[in-house]
Amino acid sequence: MFNGSRKYSPLPSSPSSSRASSSSSSSSLPAAPRRSPRALQRHSSLLSQYSSLLESYTEGEIRQLISALVERYSQAMNSGGHELPLFPRAGSRRKRARARHKPCALKELEVSVSELGLGYESDETVLFRYCSGTCEAAVRSYDLSLKSMRSRRRIKKEKVRARPCCRPLAYDDDVSFLDAYNRYYTVNELSAKECGCV
Q1: Whole-angstrom distance, CA of residue 196 vs CA of residue 177
Q2: Domain coordinates of the chain in residue numbers?
Q3: Which class for 79: exposed (0-12), middle (13-18), buried (19 or more C-beta within 10 A)?
Q4: Which stretch of DSSP H or E encloses residue 100?
Q5: 129-154, pLDDT tens digit by residue?
Q6: What is the CA radius of gyration of the chain?
Q7: pLDDT (0 to 100) of residue 38
Q8: Alpha-carbon distance 155 to 165, whole Å?
Q9: pLDDT by residue (tens digit) across 19-45?
Q10: Which of 86, 128, 142, 150 has its Cβ near the most Cβ atoms within 10 Å?
Q11: CATH code, residues 103-135+163-195
Q12: DSSP 118
């Protein structure tokens, strides 16, 4: 199907040599677009790689490959997707899948009181626990029905969430600290104690 013996050679660079070669050729060929030798070498190496790869397949195997690619592309287009590349990078796809399916869990971070954004100036550090992850497994009939009503535009203006969210179910004990002016404060419901899908 593909012949790997085709070779590309760079076009002459000097005008005198191009005149000599054009006068010696007997057939009148249309002028080919000029490319730099580097671009031709890169193109030639890619072509020879694919040519040698495809030569190892039978004609039936190549037809199967092409029909599988066309079918995959048409499925992506019919499912409402935009034009997707036929060969997405597997590494990025795996990373996205892992990020999507991390279950809802309790995490913690050591921060200064000033970083909490509550208006206190203090260099004291506290352990801030928070909830992070997805709630794919906790989707209920309510969530599916709500999503359907939103897609049909039966619910228009209200701000509703059509899937469960990873949120604190209980909070840690109150946190007390001294600010930069030696004033004592206590903040309640600051850190999560237990997380769940609500």
Answers
A1: 28
A2: 103-135+163-195
A3: exposed
A4: helix 90-100
A5: 999 999 887 888 888 888 888 888 88
A6: 32
A7: 55
A8: 20
A9: 444 444 444 555 656 655 555 555 566
A10: 128
A11: 2.10.90.10
A12: S
